Amino acid sequence: MKESTSTRPPQEQEQQPGREHKMHPLPVYIRDDYRGADKLKNKVALITGGDSGIGRAVAVHFAREGADVSIIYLEESEDAETVEQLVQKEGRRCLRLEGDIGEESFCRKAVEETVNYFGRLDILVNNAAEQHVREEIDDITPDDLVRIFKTNLFSQIYLIQHSLPHLSEGSCIVNCTSVTAFRGSPGLLDYSATKGAILALTRSLAQRLVDRKIRVNAVAPGPIWTPLIPASMPKEKVRNFGKNVPMQRPGEPWEVATCFVFLASSDSSYMTGQTLHPNGGEMVGT
């Protein structure tokens, strides 16, 4: 496995969601030497944005740890088919669910289809998100604001609501927030606001569910090489993506997925309401 480099070739994609198969270099979704240890043996996980980037890495890591996975994606069928093949290669089952998580009815359907197909649900991973770089706050239209909150925040609440009747003692929820929730981002005002809300949701829900012995934690990635980057940033900015953190490089999706494995497994049994920070060494408040 090649180590992540400090620069990326200039590139961009015309729309979100981005396509992983169009990126160069391709993101690294799992280490060559990663060995599963049955940490999630026979568990069932529902992962949003599971077709690419961090979601793909989480799906493959979970499968290697013994879990069956259901992946949600908007329309990136080629990437989703690749993930299905990767999960099956690990000897586990994968259910592909195409739809818009910003719609409550689809979130309900996704949970129902997952439970009907696998017979259970143990882990919910709220990973999917969109972001749009904007120079001024006036550039955010009312429709833009509603859309990004529906995708990034409302979807998490919808999926949690519909998953909870199927989760039992020992189950867990892992939400994806962001480093921007802790230190802000002037070009991502609305995105950062959604990520701050997800952090508050995680902490509050953890307290609500502690008596049911359902743990709720979060991961706050820094600059990670995923399709969201070329699909949301000007191509010349991609060249220096990730160089502003102490490690001076972007992270790879596998470097985040291992955080999800930890939080989804019994290794983190004494943690709830907490956030892990795979961000290349940036110091932020907890």
Write a structural description:
The chain is an alpha/beta fold. The chain has one domain: Rossmann fold, CATH 3.40.50. It has helices at residues 53-64, 77-89, 104-118, 142-163, 180-183, 189-209, 228-232, 235-238, 254-264; strands at residues 44-48, 68-73, 94-98, 123-126, 172-176, 215-219, 275-276. Strand 1 (44-48), helix 1 and strand 2 (68-73) form a beta-alpha-beta unit. The longest helix is centred in the middle third of the chain and has 22 residues, at 142-163. The two termini are 32 Å apart. The relative contact order is 0.18.
What percent of the residues sit in helical stretches (DSSP H or I)? 25-40%
Largest sheet strand order: 3-2-1-4-5-6-7
| Structural shape | globular
Instruction: Enumerate the spans where pLDDT stays under 50 for 5 or more consecutive residues.
Output: none
CATH superfamily: NAD(P)-binding Rossmann-like Domain
Strand-and-helix sequence, N→C?
Answer: EHEHEHEHEHHEHHHE
Radius of gyration: 17 Å
| Gap from first CA to last CA | 32 Å
Tell me what the CATH architecture is: 3-Layer(aba) Sandwich
Task: Indicate the CATH topology.
Answer: Rossmann fold
Number of helices: 9
Tally of separate domains = 1
Structural class: alpha/beta
Mean model confidence by pLDDT: 95
The CATH class assignment is: Alpha Beta
For the sheet with most strands, the description reads: 7 strands, parallel
Content of β-strand: 5-15%
Q: How many β-strand stretches?
A: 7
